[in-house]
Description:
By secondary structure, this protein is of the alpha+beta class. The chain is 31% helix and 27% strand. The longest helix is centred in the first third of the chain and has 19 residues, at 9-27. The structure holds 1,6-di-O-phosphono-beta-D-fructofuranose and manganese (II) ion. The site of manganese (II) ion has 4 residues, from strand 3. This is Fructose-1,6-bisphosphatase.
Amino acid sequence: MADVTEFQDRLLSLGLARVxxxxxxxxxxxxxxxxxxxxxxxxxxxxxxxxxxxxxxxxVVIGEGERDEAPMLYIGEEVGTGNGPAVDIALDPLEGTTLxxxxxxxxxxxxxxxxxxxxxxxxxxxMEKLAIGPGFAPDTVTLDxxxxxxxxxxxxxxxxxxxxITVCILERPRHEALIAEVRSTGAxxxxxxxxxxxxxxxxxxxxxxGIDMYMGSGGAPEGVLAASALKCMGGQIYGKLLFxxxxxxxxxxxxxITDLNRVYTRDEMVTADVIFAATGVTQGSILQGIKxxxxxxxxxxxxxxxxxxxxxRMLYKSPMK
Length: 321
Ligand SMILES: O=P(O)(O)OC[C@H]1O[C@](O)(COP(=O)(O)O)[C@@H](O)[C@@H]1O
Ligand SMILES: [Mn+2]
């Protein structure tokens, strides 16, 4: 008989897809309603309920926040039936709450699962990120390089001119200098208003999305989720935690991080096999958004396993509740 405490990624993966599907379905009626909190809360509740049906002894390592600030899916919360493998769970029940509230593209529900102790316990601070898709040596671009150098290095590796590279960046005042420097190379920039997990994943499907590289700072939890996705799809991501004050440093220490200046590679954020599921909420470039027709609702989910590099896309049509 199979060892139920072993990380059976193949069996667990379909259960994980149901979790992200449930979160997306719950937020369906809140798309475009201008209420971020309600959309997020609906996704959180549904994700937690589905997660607790899985035969796992799960612990949330990337979640909704610290126990005192998040009543559900807080960091350290035990999830699952407890009958099964000990796993780490990283989740963002609604990645792109504002995108959902405004019905703008690329809002997703996201969840990753890996053997216990193998996902970086990133605190809820910012992370400097740099990502490229598959097919390049790991150090083709690095965080040590200046942004313009990264563009030129990737162009060289691709055998194209710098002005044929497209970089995805979150549109924020803090990125003004970064944007100017990238533009100085002639590269194109796809500015996004939110949703850097999708931004990073875009690099892994550059033929479809037109995006070659992701740069800039965003949430550290989203960095670990993006690293999980790229570990399945191929591609590299580097992340460095950014601290604005002592409280944020204290959060890192609490999460067990001692070297505050460390640059993490993809495989240092996700040290073993991982499974990853994301469901489209609003229309997106990698996943279609939730479709509602009279009596029915359809979602699209991407489900991936790093062990095999398998990428499944699943449409799920169910009666509207
Ligand atoms: O808006 P900020 O503070 O720049 O933070 C950026 C982060 O917020 C997001 O855009 C949206 O995240 P949530 O919808 O989960 O809040 C992330 O994709 C990104 O990492
Ligand atoms: Mn998020």
